[in-house]
Design goal:
The chain is α/β, with parallel strands linked by helices. It contains 15 helices and twelve strands. The protein has two domains: 240 residues, Type I PLP-dependent aspartate aminotransferase-like (Major domain) (Aspartate Aminotransferase, domain 2, 3-Layer(aba) Sandwich), CATH 3.40.640; 132 residues, Aspartate Aminotransferase, domain 1, CATH 3.90.1150. Helices cover 41% and strands 13% of the residues. The chain binds pyridoxal-5'-phosphate (PLP). The site of pyridoxal-5'-phosphate has 15 residues, from helix 4.
Length: 391
C-alpha cells in the first residue's frame, strides 16, 4: 500500500545528514561537557558551536540561547520564569485563545497561583487584533506571549508589530516560534522579541531537544535547578548528540530555505486547489496567504473528523484532526472554536501538512482518496441527504 505522510506539523523525520552529524557524539565524542579533561572539552566545544549556529539564524548572540528538552519546556520556562521573576512588578499576562497547550496550560497553572491572564480573541483567519492587544495592557502587565505561527491552521501573526507594542509599554514579549523557525526568516532584534521557544523535531532534527532565546538583560526564574549547565539557568547534563543534530537541522533549514519554502507552497497549493475544486461543502481555514508554507487546513460539512482520519489511515494517508476527539473529548479544538467555526463544521476538520519529502504523486493520491472517502462518509449522513435532496 502507498504510504503518504502529511503530518509534518506534528513531527518530521530526522534527515540523514542530521543523523550522520549526530552519530559520532554517542560513542566517540562522549565526554560530559562539564568535565575539565579533554573528553569533556571536546563535548563542550561542539555544544557551544551548535549554540552559536542556531543563535545566528535568529540574529541572537550565542550567550542568549539556552538548550531545553523541547518546545513545551521552553514555553513553560519562558512564561512561568518571567511571571515569577516579575511578580513584584505585576501579575498580569496577555496571550491568545489559539496558543499551543504548552502555553495555555502553563497560563492556567499560573492562574491557580494568583496570576491574571487575558486570552485575546482572534478573527476568522486566526489573527489577533493589535488594537485589542494594546487595550489589554495594564500597569500590572508583565508579559505578552503570542505564538509566531499557529500549529493547527497555520496563521502567521504580525510579530514585529506585537514586539513594537510590547516594547513601547515596557512589557516582555515571548513568542512560541516552534512552527516558524526554519520556515520563516526570524530576527529577534528587529522584531523586538525578548523570549522565543523553538524545537528541533519540527525541523527534521531529533525529538526531545529545543531551545529558549532569552534576550540579554531579561531575568527568568530557573525552571530546572541543579548543576551549573547552561550558564546556571537550566541544569542537567547536555544532550550533546541531539544538540549537534538540532544545529545541523537548523543549518540545513536556512541553507536550503528558499527551495524549501517554494516547494512546500507549491505542494500545499496543489493540495488546496485539488481539494477545493473536487469536494463541495468544504471550507479552507487559516489566513489565505499569511500562513505556514506547508499547512493546509480543511473543514468538511457532514463529516466526522475521526472517521475521516481513520479512513485516510486505511489507505495509508497520515493527517491530523483539529478536533480533540482523539484525546477523549468531544469538543472541537480551542483553535477552531476561536476562529468561530460552527461545531458541526469544526467536527469535520482535517489538517494536512506537507514537508520536504512530500511529492506531487502524494498530493494527487491524497486528493483522489479524500474525495472518495468524503463521498462515502456523507452517504451515511442523514443531514447531507437532506441538504442535497438525496441525490
Ligand atoms: C510542537 C509544538 C510545541 C511543542 O514542542 P515539543 O518540542 O514537541 O515539546 C509547542 N508549540 C508549538 C506551536 C508546536 O507546534
Amino acid at each position: 500500500m502507498k504510504r503518504v505522510y502529511l503530518d509534518y506539523s506534528a513531527t518530521t523525520p530526522t534527515k540523514k545528514e542530521v543523523l550522520d552529524a549526530m552519530l559520532p557524539y554517542f560513542s566517540e565524542v562522549f565526554g560530559n561537557p562539564s568535565s575539565i579533561h579533554g573528553f569533556g572539552r571536546e563535548a563542550k566545544k561542539v555544544v557551544n558551536e551548535s549554540r552559536a549556529t542556531i543563535a545566528g539564524f535568529m540574529n541572537a548572540d550565542e550567550k542568549e540561547l539556552y538548550f531545553t528538552a523541547g518546545g513545551t519546556e521552553s514555553d513553560n520556562w519562558a512564561v512561568k520564569g518571567a511571571a515569577k521573576a516579575l511578580k513584584n512588578k505585576g501579575n498580569h499576562i496577555i496571550t491568545s485563545k489559539i496558543e499551543h497547550h504548552g502555553i495555555l496550560h502553563t497560563c492556567e497553572s499560573l492562574e491557580k497561583e494568583g496570576f491574571e491572564v487575558t486570552y485575546l480573541d482572534v478573527d476568522g483567519d486566526g489573527l489577533i487584533s493589535l488594537e485589542a492587544l494594546e487595550a489589554a495592557i495594564k500597569p500590572e502587565t508583565v508579559l505578552i506571549s503570542i505564538m509566531f505561527v499557529n500549529n493547527e491552521i497555520g496563521t502567521l501573526q504580525p510579530i514585529k508589530e506585537i514586539g513594537a507594542i510590547a516594547k513601547a509599554h515596557g512589557v516582555l514579549f515571548h513568542t512560541d516560534a516552534v512552527q516558524a523557525f526554519g520556515n520563516f526568516k526570524i530576527d529577534v532584534k528587529d522584531m523586538n522579541i525578548d523570549l522565543m521557544s523553538i524545537s528541533s523535531h519540527k525541523i527534521y532534527g531529533p525529538k526531545g531537544i529545543g531551545a529558549l532565546y532569552i534576550r540579554k538583560g531579561v531575568r527568568l526564574v530557573n525552571f530546572v535547578d541543579g548543576g551549573a549547565q547552561e550558564r546556571k539557568k537550566r541544569a542537567g547534563t547536555e544532550n550533546v548528540p541531539s544538540i549537534v543534530g538540532f544545529a545541523k537541522a537548523a543549518e540545513i533549514a536556512y541553507r536550503d530555505f528558499d527551495a524549501h519554502v517554494e516547494k512546500l507552497v507549491a505542494l500545499r497549493e496543489r493540495l488546496r486547489k485539488g481539494v477545493m475544486e473536487t469536494i463541495d461543502y468544504c471550507k479552507y481555514n487559516g489566513h489565505p496567504d499569511q500562513r505556514h508554507p506547508g499547512n493546509a487546513h480543511f473543514a468538511f460539512e457532514f463529516i466526522e473528523g475521526e472517521a475521516l482520519l481513520l479512513s485516510l489511515d486505511l489507505v495509508g494517508i497520515a493527517g491530523s484532526s483539529g478536533s480533540a476527539c482523539t484525546s477523549g473529548s468531544l469538543d472541537p479544538s480551542h483553535v477552531l472554536m476561536a476562529i468561530g467555526l460552527k461545531h458541526e463544521i469544526a467536527h469535520g476538520s482535517l489538517r494536512l501538512s506537507v514537508g520536504d519529502f512530500t511529492t506531487e504523486e502524494d498530493i494527487d493520491y491524497t486528493i483522489k482518496e479524500l474525495k472518495t472517502i468524503v463521498e462515502r462518509l456523507r452517504m451515511m449522513s442523514p443531514l447531507y441527504d437532506k441538504v442535497t435532496g438525496g441525490k
